[in-house]
Each structure stands twice: as structure tokens, then as C-alpha cells.
């Protein structure tokens, strides 16, 4: 068993930091004592959405502004497992990477009620965006890719066709039942809901 990460303690440790899962403690007290040091290195797995449509896994600081300023992806909130999306340009006035149209990011901000993303997100130069789980647990590329497919299929459905006239989403769409099934499996496997 690992030794407690609190330097002044030598006990064996079985409690894991739930954010980075990289350190162990013998007790909640030791974790609290050690947090001022640990928070500088404690990181969360997130996904960077590039305007090119590429999804890249990226470790971010557990105090990253996404956890304060990030916006809920409405569809994931609807399914009870909230994911946050953060656009440096919209939320901090900072530009990261290539400042171009980011379709995947716009999809994630779509409201299921009307099929539209907020006006501020409907710009041609969102640039790079970050996505992370609000509970700070690791997020997978597979989850985002499946969500992207589902959003595409929503835009292609009769329901949204009226609103999103002229929008032609990419192929390989999935329907709501398939998405629901994937989503439920994802969180079951995750086992840390
Ligand atoms: Zn300890
Ligand atoms: Zn940690």
C-alpha cells in the first residue's frame, strides 16, 4: 500500500485524490493539510477542441477557470452528467491557438429546446475550446466524439430542420436511442458517478 503523501506522516494510505488520482492519503485530515502543496500539481484531464475538428486530451490545473467560468453543455446536463465547455476567447478575452470557426464547440452549446446555441457562441472565430467534466473526473475522447455525432443527427432531424435550414451536418449520425445507450454505458463503466 502507498505511503501517505503528507510528508510529515508515514502511515499507509488508501484514500486517493479524487481529482488527479495520482496521490494517496491515510486520512481526510492529511489530505486537507497537504492540499496547499498538492493543488499546484493536481491536474484534471480535459479535451481541447480545435477548430480543425481535432479532439486532444490535455491535462489542466484543477483550478483552471473552466471550473468557474465554463458553461454547461445543455444536452449532457439533460442526461444528468454535466460537462463544462470553456472558450478562452469568450470567457477570458484570450486567444488560444487558431482563432477560427469551431463547429464542435457550437454543437456542444446547443440547447435541446430549440436547437440553437447562444448568440455569443455563433461566431466565426471561437478558436480553441476546452471541455471537462464538472466533477473533475477524466473525460474521454470517445464520449465527445459520440456527443458530436448525436448533435449532428439532431441538426439533421425533422425537429431541427425548420430552425437550422441550410445546415448540413457531417455523416455517420446516431439517433437518440443509440446516444442514450452509449451515454448510460459510459457512466456505468466509469463507475464513479
Ligand atoms: Zn497521513
Ligand atoms: Zn490531486
TrEMBL record:
This is MYND-type domain-containing protein. InterPro entries: Znf_MYND (IPR002893). It comes from the Eukaryota. One of its GO terms (molecular function) is zinc ion binding. Keywords: Metal-binding, Zinc, Zinc-finger. Residues 6-42 form the MYND-type domain. PROSITE patterns: ZF_MYND_2. Gene3D superfamilies: 6.10.140.2220.
Amino acid at each position: 500500500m502507498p505511503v501517505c503523501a503528507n510528508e510529515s506522516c508515514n502511515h499507509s494510505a488508501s484514500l486517493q485524490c479524487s481529482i488527479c488520482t495520482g496521490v494517496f492519503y491515510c486520512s481526510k485530515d492529511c489530505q486537507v493539510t497537504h492540499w496547499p502543496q498538492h493543488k499546484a500539481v493536481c491536474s484534471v484531464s480535459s479535451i481541447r477542441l480545435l477548430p480543425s475538428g481535432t479532439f486532444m486530451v490535455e491535462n489542466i490545473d484543477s483550478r483552471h477557470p473552466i471550473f468557474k467560468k465554463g458553461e454547461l453543455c445543455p444536452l449532457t446536463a439533460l442526461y444528468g452528467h454535466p460537462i463544462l465547455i470553456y472558450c478562452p476567447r469568450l470567457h477570458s478575452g484570450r486567444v488560444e491557438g487558431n482563432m477560427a470557426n469551431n463547429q464542435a464547440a457550437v454543437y456542444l452549446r446547443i440547447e435541446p429546446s430549440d436547437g440553437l446555441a447562444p448568440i455569443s457562441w455563433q461566431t466565426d472565430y471561437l478558436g480553441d475550446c476546452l471541455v471537462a467534466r464538472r466533477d473533475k473526473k477524466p473525460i474521454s475522447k470517445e464520449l465527445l466524439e459520440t456527443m458530436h455525432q448525436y448533435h449532428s443527427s439532431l441538426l439533421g432531424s425533422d425537429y431541427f430542420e425548420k430552425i437550422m435550414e441550410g445546415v448540413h451536418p457531417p455523416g455517420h449520425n446516431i439517433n437518440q436511442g443509440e446516444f442514450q445507450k452509449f451515454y448510460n454505458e459510459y457512466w456505468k463503466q466509469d463507475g464513479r458517478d
